[in-house]
Specification:
- By secondary structure, this protein is α+β, with helices and mostly antiparallel strands.
- The protein is about 25% helix and about 35% strand.
- It contains two helices and four strands, in the order ββααββ.
- Strand 3 (about 115-125) and strand 4 form a beta hairpin.
- It is elongated and about 50 Å long.
């Protein structure tokens, strides 16, 4: 099995409802995001997936959230936890790859490669992962 990983980042504010602690107050993070693609077959060029395509698509998704208040995005239902952000990025990245490059990395794709995980780091030591 092969795996490639690319990373991107963004800065955003958020607060957590239904949370009893300091994170219920508005605050910000410099988020770091990793996207992991895995598969068992390489293409004609000896690659699982072109790093540039994956990295540019991930950067586009992260740019949508950069310098925003994540609570303003209705998809997070007023609770933009790192877990929900990871799931959002996973789904947006799948859509972006399909729309812009006709690449299907979804779990149901007949292709041999999949977007298997997205990691969102709020800090260097705190990560949430969304995976298939």
């Amino acid at each position: 099995m092969y795996e490639v990983r690319v990373e991107a980042d963004f800065a955003a504010a958020h607060f957590l409802r239904d949370y009893n602690g300091k994170c219920e107050n508005l605050h910000g993070h410099n988020y770091k995001v990793y996207a992991h693609v895995s598969g068992s077959k390489l293409n004609e060029g000896g690659m699982l997936l072109d790093f540039g395509i994956l990295k540019n698509s991930l950067r586009e998704v992260c740019k949508e959230m950069d310098h925003t208040n994540l609570n303003d995005n209705p998809v997070f239902v007023q609770n933009p936890s790192a877990e929900r952000i990871a799931e959002f990025i996973y789904n947006r990245l799948l859509a972006k790859l399909h729309e812009n490059h006709n690449i299907d990395l979804s779990p149901n794709s007949p292709d041999s490669i999949k977007l298997y995980a997205v990691d969102v780091f709020e800090t260097e030591t705190s990560r949430a992962r969304y995976t298939i």
